[in-house]
Design brief:
single chain, 191 residues, alpha+beta, hypothetical protein yedk fold, five-stranded antiparallel sheet, 5 helices, globular
Length: 191
């Protein structure tokens, strides 16, 4: 899964006025990113700010992740995945694991082994808030975890390499390939 992620790098949101774009929604552009925060995403048109999570159709909660294996089958995700893919820049994502039967879970940061940047595959769509104002929102696509990540959780984000970002947002054949392939080996560090 991916319930939080990290942005340490100011270059991800360079040129974005997140406060102006957030329309009063509490958000963050740096540090630990929580569901419903405003964060940068990479689209074909460039970097934009969006809210993390599609509105849930039955409750006030947000849908923050989508299973890559079934996203095209779901009404909520099919059109955004085919027409509005995005990449979510980060420096890693967090997972929690209960260690030695303890009640408290330990927090881990999962990062790329050879880079400080980690790009997650996602999709975005446009929604209206309670006042009728439009806003952009995104969802992170998840896949089966690779061995290093599976020690903590059975799911992880679909990860894109920096040189794949343009193909991810523009090329449907590449999208299908990226959703089926295994992810890269990751570095796991206590957070």
């Amino acid at each position: 899964m991916c319930g939080r992620y990290l942005i340490e790098d100011d270059s991800f949101s360079k040129g974005l006025d997140i406060t102006a774009l957030s329309k009063g929604i509490a958000g963050a552009t740096k540090g630990e990113i929580f569901p419903t925060n405003i964060a940068p995403i990479i689209l074909e048109s460039g970097v934009e700010a969006a809210k993390w999570g599609f509105p849930h159709w039955k409750s006030s909660s947000a849908v923050i992740n989508a299973r890559s294996e079934t996203a095209l089958e779901k009404n909520m995700f099919r059109k955004p995945l085919l027409e509005r893919r995005c990449a979510i820049p980060s420096n890693g994502f967090y997972e929690w694991k209960r260690v030695n039967g303890q009640k408290k879970k330990d927090k881990f940061l999962l990062r790329m082994k050879d880079s400080k940047k980690l790009f997650m595959a996602g999709m975005m769509s446009i929604f209206k808030d309670a006042f009728g104002d439009e806003y952009s929102a995104f969802v992170i696509l998840t896949t089966a975890a690779v061995a290093t990540a599976a020690e903590i959780h059975d799911r992880m984000p679909v990860i894109l390499l920096p040189e794949e970002l343009d193909r991810w947002v523009c090329d449907t054949a590449f999208m299908e390939h990226a959703l089926r392939r295994p992810g890269p080996d990751l570095l796991v560090v206590p957070a």
